[in-house]
Amino acid sequence: MLLELLRIDEARLAAELSRFLDGPHDLPAVLHETVRLVLELESRWGAKLFRDVVGLYFSPTRPEEEQWAQHQTFVLLAAEIERSRHRGELYDDTDCYDGAAFFLVGLYALLTSYRDIGPERESVLRRFVKSTVRSLQPQG
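Structure tokens predicted for TetR family transcriptional regulator (140 residues):
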């Protein structure tokens, strides 16, 4: 039941992200939009259910065949990182799958660590996106 809920809402989130990607955007905007959509999902489910579902990703009992590449949001984010790399906005050796995985794992970790919704959490999430972008973009 929980996995079915996850799949339905993940498809909804991916569809919304896909619509966002149809318009003008850059990588920071995509990352901020991903955060916004995940926060919206957390709000819809409630914090406890959200943490339980996120915990499934990191559970030692999760099915072995469960892979990031099976998740639409991950695939969309990885593709956007790859497009940014091809446009020369990121380091040449940026791995789009690692970048998407690192971002999503970090986002879920922050959301389960900073449970209180408010200015501190918002600030941490903004800094997280900024730090992620800086880690992918060459300086100068």
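The domain at 2-136 is CATH 1.10.357 (Tetracycline Repressor; domain 2).
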